[in-house]
What we know:
The protein is mostly helical. The chain has a single domain, classed as Alpha-helical ferredoxin (Fumarate Reductase Iron-sulfur Protein, Chain B, domain 2). The chain has 5 helices and no strands. The chain has helices at 2-13, 40-53, 58-65, 72-76, 83-96. Helix 1 packs antiparallel against helix 5 (83-96). It is globular and about 30 Å long. The protein starts with a helix and ends in a 5-residue tail after the last helix.
Amino acid sequence: MNNELRKVILSDLLKCSYCGFCEWICPTQYAMDNYRVFGPRGRVNMIILFLREGLWSDILVESIYTCLLCKACTTQCPAGIEIEKDIRLFRQLLEIENVIK
Length: 101
């Protein structure tokens, strides 16, 4: 199940061209100090790095769990990525794999 879930998330997120259209509408984008990590594009990048390279950090968890799941970014994505859905699935993956410490 974990590998299938990883594939589902990664296949959707790899459609991202990092255009940034999703960022202006994100309510958490500029509310945090390191705002690049706390916007949709930063979250997408961090999830991809984790799934491909296993790169783990506390900032990854903070970034993923500060997302409001409001779907605002999804409405702006020209590639049709369901960012909110992928973040929700990624949260499930973190719990399944018992990654959160």
